[in-house]
Amino acid sequence: MPLVPSYIESLQPYQAGRSIDEVRRAYGLTHVVKLASNENPLGSSPLATEAIRLAAINLNLYPNGGLDLRRVLAEAYDVKVENVIAGSGSEGIMSNIMRTFLCDEDEVLTTEAAFIGFQVLAKSRGTKYRTVPYRNWAYDLPALAAAVNDRTKIIYLANPNNPTGTLFTRQEFDEFYKHVPERVLIILDEAYFEYARDNPRYPDSMHYRYDNVITLRSFSKIYGLAGARIGYGFAHQDLVANLLKIKLPFEPGTLSQAAGIAALGDKAFLHRSLEMNARGMKYLRESLMDMDVTWVESHANFIMTVWPSEDQAAQVVEDLLQCGIIVRPLKAWGLPGCVRISIGTDEENRECVAAMRKVLAMVKV
Ligand SMILES: Cc1ncc(COP(=O)(O)O)c(C=O)c1O
């Protein structure tokens, strides 16, 4: 179509995980478990849902562009409000980053099979998108540093990474950073920060601020607010000031902002979510090991499995769907032999493992 630029026409739209309703209908099932989108299986912070109810009184008024949340975060992290941005999920902020900083001749650099939301956004601008292969399913930071050229404008690093769940250390980042010119913007996506932060190998980027690094965080995971679309970021005030010129003036919405602020204060929910995730991760690891399924050590709320072939990966996904278990095939990300499983409640994890045992037994017969 002549109206559409070729780089848009050739894009594949973001494909979200299949919904419970869709799978129920398609497979004629009554009970379906969704372990496909790294959502919080405990639901949402109750303080957040109560805050949404209270904030609804003011729905006739325009929101204040995330200022209340920015103030709370600035106080909590001992930075200035000018260093904080809030948006419609961390993806909303990523989208603004693309629009604010990328020019036609610029290039984006990241790992192969990076978070698919980022892939879609980065390619939507029509600029060149370059990748470096994983090393042991983790970012190959030395190779990324070596791949920087005169046109590189944005480097995207997720820590922990989605879909592999791996992390890089402070030392590895520092070594990488030495080789990156200051004119390059590094996006440090920490959507899964809370799951990893107690790991001594995990570097909290709030402890090492650089002028060309923007940290992104999300309320969609540990706080269970994926449906509210609320995320935030920290960066040098000049970066934030320019992002604010591009951001839709009234995002995030009133209810989302209120939910985010309340969720930050809900330590009990955070704690319960972490405990359940740690228990589920241990159980899934042990069960996968027992079933001889290859998996990658993960520091987030999901685990990536690796299958001998693309066909086998696709078959497992399909067979699990027939049993009412939705997991995430990673073909669209560029990893056709891999399947990601989100950690669920104890009961959901048990159901997933039972279905997998059944499916694998059928394959082996
Ligand atoms: C690495 C990564 N970044 C960002 C996001 C999106 O977060 P949000 O819901 O805040 O846009 C996700 C969601 O899966 C993710 O895995």
Q: Can you give keywords for this protein?
A:
365 residues, alpha/beta, Aspartate Aminotransferase, domain 1, Aspartate Aminotransferase, domain 2, 2 domains, 4-stranded antiparallel sheet
Bound ions, cofactors and other small molecules, one mention each:
pyridoxal-5'-phosphate
Q: What general outline do the C-alpha atoms trace?
A: globular
Low-confidence stretches: none
Work out the helicity level: 40-55%
Element string (H = helix, E = strand): HHEHHEHEHEHEHEHEEHHHEEHEEEH
What CATH architecture of the largest domain do you see? Answer: 3-Layer(aba) Sandwich
Spatially, the strands of the biggest sheet line up as: 2-8-7-6-5-3-4
End-to-end span in angstroms? 50 Å
Number of strand elements: 13
Report the average pLDDT across residues.
Answer: 95
| Helix and strand composition category | alpha/beta
